[in-house]
Task: structure prediction
Amino acid sequence: MTQQTVAAANDFHTKVGEIVTEELELEDGELTDGGHFIDDYDSDSLSLITVVSRIEKELGVTIPKTELGDLVSLRLLVAAVEQHAGQGTDV
Result:
């Protein structure tokens, strides 16, 4: 992994974490990489759709709707953002 790639990954982690914290109305420091959005943070599917919508709008990364059910933690969500970043969002 190049330094630029590591920096981009860290940026995604930070920004996605901020979005999740805001949308799930968590306290600073409450969100962990492995915490389950629904089981640990009392989220629901609508909250997760809002999180993904903000990611798409703010980061320009489109995550296929078919993957939403698998994105149950910050770690998995960041991995999906990294995977789909740069794949283009042209419609």
